[in-house]
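Hey, resending since the last one bounced:
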Amino acid sequence: MSLPVFTNVPYRLVKDNMQRILSLGIGIEIYFNNDALDEAEPKEVKELGKMLAGLGVRCTVHAPFMDLSPGGVDRTVRAITKEKLKRSVELANTLQALTIVCHPGYDRWRFDGNQRLWLDASMDTWTAVIGEAGRDLLVLVENIFEDEPSTLIELFNVFRDKNLNFCFDSGHFNLFSKVPLSDWLEPLKGRVREMHLHDNHGRSDEHLPIGMGTFPFRELKAFVRQLDNIVYTTEIHSEAYAKDSIINLKEFLS
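The C-alpha cells again:
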C-alpha cells in the first residue's frame, strides 16, 4: 500500500483547510485536544469522515494528552484518561482513520524512576483502548520524555500479541534520548507503524522541517529503507514552516 505523507491539523481547522489539504496532496493527522474531544458531535465527525473518504484524503488521529496519565497512580485520573482515550478511538473509527497516536505518560521524574509502578497501572488503560479499537485501527504509543526505550519495550512485551504499536518521534528523541538512535530502532523495529518526523536543536520542541536542526536524519534514512507500510507525519506548529516541512519530508522519503 502506498501512503501519502501526513501533516497534523487540529480537528476544528480541518474543514476550513480542505482546499489546501487537497492542493498539497497529503494525508492529515487530526488532533483532538481535550475540549475538541468533549465538544465533537458524532454526526459531524461522521460527515467529516465521509467527506475525507470521498475526496481521497487518508487520515490518522492524535489523541489528547494534556493532563492525562494512562499509567497514573491516582485511580480517578487514570479512569478519566481511559475514557478520553476510548472516546478518541471511537472518533478515529468513525473517521475511518488508519492509526491513533497516544502518549504513554511515563516520565522518570514524576514516577521517581519506578517503571513498574507506571507499567502495572498502564495495563488496564491499554487493554481498554485496544479493545475499543477493534481490528482495523492501529493503536500507537509515542516516545515523549523517555531517555531510553526500556519502558516502551516492557509495555510491548506485555501486549506482545495485541494491537499496540510504536510511533517514533524524531523531535522528542533529539530532546530527551541519552542513548543512540539504533538503541531505539533495532529493538522496536517490529512495532514501528508510524513516524513523526520533525527537527530541533536539542533545546526545545521547535517542530522544524527536516534538516533545519540537529536530528541525525541520515542515520534514520538507512533504517527507513528497511520498512514498509509506515505512516510518515510532519507535525507543524508554525504556519511559516508548513510548506517546507511537507516538501522536506517528501524529499527525505524519496
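Residues 75-94 form the longest helix (20 residues).

Sorry for the duplicate.
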